[in-house]
Amino acid sequence: MTLHSTANVSPASSSAAREPLFGTVLVANRGEIACRVIRTLRALGIRSVAVYSDADAGARHVREADTSVRIGPAPAAESYLNIEAVIGACRQTGAKAVHPGYGFLSENVDFARALEKAGITFIGPGVEALNVMGDKIRSKNHVAGYGVPVVPGVARPGMTDAELVEAAAAVGFPLLIKPSAGGGGKGMHAVEKAEDLPAALATARRVAASAFGDDTLFLERLVTTPRHIEVQVLADNHGNVIHLGERECSLQRRHQKVIEEAPSPLLESLPDGAAVRARIGEAACNAARSVNYSGAGTVEFLVSDDAPDEFYFMEMNTRLQVEHPVTEMVTGTDLVEWQVRIAAGGELTVRQADVELSGHSVEARVYAEVPEKNFLPSTGRVYLLDELPSGTAGTVRVDSSLVEGLQLSSSYDPMMAKVVAWGADRAAALDTLDQALAGYTALGLATNVEYLRLLINDPDVRDGRLDTGLIERKLPGLAFRRVSDAELVAAALFAVHAGEQAPHGPGPWQGRSGWRLGAPAPRRVSLGTPDGGLATVAVSGSPGGSIVTVDGGKRSRACLRFPRRGHMELTLDGEVHEYALAPVYPGPGTPLSDAPLQLFLGNEGWSCRLDVLTREARLERVLAAIQQEEGSADPAVRSPMPGTVVSVAVADGDTVKAGQVLVSVEAMKMEHQLPAPLAGTVHLSTRPGELVKAEQVVATIHPDPEHKPGPGTAGTFPGGDTAQEPTHGKGA
């Protein structure tokens, strides 16, 4: 972790460094935040304890901690949310304090009380702050009494769906449904029309109950062209409260932040930006003072792009934020260090006048997901990893949970890492981030890295014209890269190379080189493309010098070389293409002809998987393409990934319409609605509470004889995206 230190506000050089700290601290979290906290604990000379579930036994945070304790099976409710198990791990290891990270138990008032009863320090705010700010209804009503502006709406505890529907008329449409407990955008729904409200309330309650154990909802007016701006605060137990400037988090999808930056380009663009920053910062400090806040916290505000000098309180996050590194980069402050020192009784040695923002910082969240398929989360194994490109030390920081060989679990959030860049100004920071993302390699997983590069290079983003709906508007027009002839040729040449390296029997008859009397026959390599189609590459010669054709097209000259581990260089008709490469071979003792070779390729932030198909696998794809007529829909509805069925919206034997939601599956902390691909009679293959595997059929539609499918009805993905049919030739 590299910090660009720009302001003299780090406690390391102050009297705070002499405060007695804890001997052992347990980190009650996982993933990249656990790794990040452990690094600061090590720098402070504090022994760290990791906790882990069965799914995380080989995780990076477990490897980096000084010691670790298993606390339960994969489901978070039985491990990371198990208060007794976490306290038991403290007793077992002698930990005198707990850092909760974010998510899980970080804002759980019962956890804070249990730690207090056990004589263990909670590295976070007191029970009062957790209790008030942990409930959005209570917090909104509370801070309004301290002069903090709030969004108009209706926020009363215990309101039924009928009462919310009745109250909605006074709030006005469009409006926003929000769960009172929790955060991260889960359960939030924008509703445009009154007739859509009852169904949205039912979904929001179900998600809120599942995610937070509390289905209380409230309504707020939907602010048009909204900007999401939050303020970082620090407060000690001696009455001192300061803010460290603001962050802009307006680039979101499904209310989840994707890109965050500090300072806000909106405030930077205002003639009186410094005055607005002082006002919004003071409002944040007042919110913290209202609950005797202690430690690091964030106060989130909604700002209309049409009236940027007006802001409204949304909520206070009583914990560290995912995006805290951008504040650290522009202030030189280690927020985790301050959390530890304040919890140990230390006093803030920094005054508001000492805080200076230097330069600009932008953070991109790296998710295991497929943006082209409505950001569908994905799982997989990390076969090749290179997260920090050369030449970026000092201006780029990567907080990550990844290590090579790690199998990503479907039990947790799909965020894997954060890439954070610093620059002298916003343009320089974005350029540095783009460079860092172009060099970011994590093969074996589907990631959003290519999407992040497209997003931060969008003209509106570059010019700072941001709002929380920008991603939804821009996604359909983004030009995602597709598999080209170069990737197909590279994969085919590698497959030939792998075949030549494999042991064969004596004589030409046992080899697979295409040897025959006279001129050698071209070797044909069948490749499965990411869209379910196939391509055939004919190779004459060796990988070091070949004549190749793709799907019977033009003849090209090609050669392949391997300059270093994990890298492949293809020269195709004189043009050089460089790739990161991760081959996945069949199991030991299985010849290449009997099991497919998988090749993960990537460059400039883009990646794909190509399968070297056996004859049987090739035949399956050909038959599937023949059997599925142009424009027809697959009658099978499949779960896109492993998960749990949380609801079934129809009964077995019901008549359904195309696009009607049949089943909802929860995976990686998100709910995915699976619609009917065509009209007909539904036959269910699952029930609520059932665990399903990836690609498992959860329902089948027996088509209505009158139904004539039109374009765009082929195999839908969650969120309404359309699956591409298997095709011959190059795939997407």
Task: Please give the largest β-sheet.
Answer: 8 strands, antiparallel
Could you tell me the mean pLDDT?
Answer: 87
Tell me roughly what share of residues is in helical segments.
10-25%
- Low-confidence parts lasting 5 or more residues at pLDDT below 50? 1-10, 12-17, 504-511, 709-732
| Topology, number of strands | 37
Structural class: alpha+beta
Approximate strand percentage: 25-35%
Short description:
This protein is of the alpha+beta class and 732 residues long.
Keywords:
eight-stranded antiparallel β-sheet; alpha+beta; 732 residues; disordered C terminus; eight-stranded antiparallel barrel; single chain; disordered N terminus
Descriptive report:
- The two termini are 36 Å apart.
- The protein has 18 helices and 37 strands.
What is this structure's SSE topology?
Layout: E1 24-27, H1 31-43, E2 47-53, H2 60-64, E3 67-72, H3 83-93, E4 97-99, H4 109-118, E5 121-122, H5 127-133, H6 136-144, E6 153-154, H7 161-171, E7 175-179, E8 189-191, H8 197-212, E9 217-221, E10 226-235, E11 241-253, E12 256-262, H9 265-269, H10 273-289, E13 295-304, E14 311-317, H11 324-331, H12 335-343, E15 360-367, E16 369-370, E17 376-377, E18 384-386, E19 396-400, E20 415-423, H13 426-438, E21 441-443, H14 449-456, H15 459-462, H16 470-474, H17 485-501, E22 523-528, E23 534-542, E24 545-550, E25 556-561, E26 567-572, E27 575-584, E28 597-603, E29 606-612, H18 615-627, E30 636-638, E31 643-648, E32 655-656, E33 661-667, E34 670-675, E35 680-684, E36 691-692, E37 697-703
Parallel strand pairs: 1-2, 1-4, 2-3, 4-5
Antiparallel strand pairs: 6-9, 7-8, 7-9, 10-11, 10-13, 11-12, 12-15, 13-14, 15-20, 16-17, 18-21, 19-20, 22-23, 22-29, 23-24, 24-25, 25-26, 26-27, 27-28, 28-29, 30-37, 31-33, 31-36, 32-35, 33-34, 35-37
